[in-house]
Amino acid sequence: QVQLVESGGGLVQPGGSLGLSCAASGSIPSIAIMGWYRRFQDKERELVASMDSGGRTTYADSVKDRFTISRDKAKITVDLQMNSLKLEDTAVYYCYASTWSQNLYWGQGAQVTVSS
């Protein structure tokens, strides 16, 4: 079992920056990949960024060069630094962890609102 607790997010103006953090607990060695999804108001979901245990990252085209995912050495936390935010980045952001046995765990979600 893996538990994920998110922090961060909030309200920011276009062009601003926000950070999200996700702390994992429980069966840490079982985690293969950690990352972030977001769900837009129309319920569409998008994989934002992920990082595997080897440090390889993937990003959605919509956030490349603006968002950065990172994990601490102990692989307990995964952070998402979001720069140059746009109106269309407004969504609920969910941290997730995928284990080697392909179980999927989710954080509680954090609202990110970009508005002028």
Structure description:
It is a single chain. Strands 2, 4, 5, 6, 9, 10 and 11 form a 7-stranded mixed sheet that branches. A 4-stranded antiparallel sheet has the order 1-3-8-7, with no helix packed on it. 28% of the residues are buried. Strand 7 and strand 8 form a beta hairpin. By secondary structure, it is mostly beta strands. Helices cover 0% and strands 58% of the residues.
In short:
By secondary structure, this protein is an all-beta fold.
Indicate the topology:
Elements: E1 2-8, E2 10-12, E3 18-26, E4 31-39, E5 45-52, E6 57-59, E7 67-71, E8 77-82, E9 91-99, E10 104-106, E11 110-114
Parallel strand pairs: 2-11
Antiparallel strand pairs: 1-3, 3-8, 4-5, 4-9, 5-6, 7-8, 9-10, 9-11
Strand fraction equals over 45%
Protein structure class: mainly beta
Q: How would you state the average pLDDT, rounded?
A: 95
SSE string: EEEEEEEEEEE
Unreliable residue runs: none
Intertermini distance: 40 Å
The number of E-state strands comes to 11
Tally of DSSP helical segments: 0
The amount of helix comes to under 10%
Largest β sheet strand count, sense and barrel closure? 7 strands, mixed
Brief descriptors of the model:
seven-stranded mixed sheet; 11 strands; 0% helix; 116 residues; globular; mainly beta
